[in-house]
Amino acid sequence: MASSLRPPLPDVTITIVGLGPAGIGHVDAGAWELLDEAETVVVRTLNHPAAQQLAARRAVLPCDDLYDGLDGFDDIYTAIAERVVAAAAKGSVVYAVPGSAVVGERAVAKVRLLAREAGIDVTVRPGLSFLDLAYIAVGVDPIADGLQVLDARDLPDPLPLHLPTFVTQVDSKLRSSDVSLALTRTIGPETEVTVLDRLGDDDEVVTTMRVSEVARYDAGPRTTVYVPATSSGLMGLIDVHRILRRECPWDRAQTHHTLVTHLIEEAYETADAIGHLPPDAPGGEPDFGAYAEVEDELGDLLLQVVFHATLASEAGAFDIDEVAEGVRRKLVQRHPHVFGDVEVADADEVLSNWEQIKKVEKSRESLMDDIPIGMPGVARAMKVQKRARSVGFDWEGADEVMTALKDEIDELIAAGDDKAAAREELGDVLFTVVNLSRHLGIDPEVALRASVDKFIARFKSMEREFASRSMDMVDASTAELEAAWLSAKSISPAQSTWRSDPPSTLGAS
Questions:
Q1: Are both 39 and 119 inside the same structural domain?
Q2: pTM to 2 decimals?
Q3: Angle 241-209-230 from CA coordinates, rounded to 5°
Q4: Which domain holds residue 47?
Q5: CATH of the domain at 25
Q6: Burial 37-48 (b: 16+ CB within 10 A, else e)
């Protein structure tokens, strides 16, 4: 196969030189000699002390105009690399960058790639990084203490802060505000951090301030925020729980089995909190009060996951990272239409593929295998129906289910006083109602909970009405109960749950 690389240019090289974190005093003599003697020197930016001093000594070709003329950083760095390689067509070039040439200099990688394609040799003299001065300023050893360096323009979400952290590229007041906001999502606004600016200059800044104050700091191109390691976020939760497991008598006494009740309770409380969200959430206007409740309950539920993973880790079975990695792999494997080359037409085909993949994974003989018997009846019915739908065994639409539901109700009525038959037919009615809810796109559990809540609200209204008349509901006649119900119904007719005809009939509507 013929090479696509261009033939090498004779005696042409590109030398990439780091100008250090500040002025000329941080650039070694050998690098200055190269910069002085080079035929062409391209500097990424003149907005740096050493670059300005270099430009005062000799002619340089700056790239600041590219920052003004292009929008995205990737386009800017590509244009810089093209300028450097184009300059090399006329002779050897030195490309000078602030700090170290191998720390945060994305254009350097592009220069090396384009130069290799053009057959040009590249030499790199890294230079002193601002991080070397930052280690001294805050007293951190990147090996002994651990360390992470993050780019303020692309902060991870979630934001891990379990290691000492330098947030770099905090290059404007707007960026410092963004960093402050991102940090306060994980750590308190009163937490102290260190702002580092213009390290190595006579007017360098090394100052401690609260996270909330970072938002008001007038940041520039050489601003960095240092955050000491904190026990916060997901990693903080894991750390705190491990301490509790060692030192709290109640936590020490728990086993997987003693926690099952708590796991179920937290799941129900989470479902209840989600039920308070608007029906189209996360669409529409967010209800932040309801979301605060969901956040709280999700935290309690997450604790149960962490607790069980901690116990499993003690047994040597698995830990929380293995849990997360297991579900990550599962998601990738079960979404071949996203992570592979499988094409799907719609969500139904996604579901069908999902169930078939699970069948293979779990070595099921039947799609109906491994559906927990202990699941609540409504949820179990929904799961069974979804699996059946994955192979096309389903009603075409809600109208057909409505017809089937009427037939099931007729069969229930026909069962009469036969308890066994009535029980069977009532089960068929409920199963069909779940089927109907699925075709209507309504979660039956959510719908039922809403009806129960409506009933409770109306019943409490009735209790208040009888109490205001110094009556006990137990002594009220059917007519008085119905009248009280109609009164409660009139407060908010849309939330009525009783049928008013005939008067003695009580039920959900």
A1: yes
A2: 0.68
A3: 15
A4: 13-128
A5: 3.40.1010.10
A6: ebebbbbbbebb
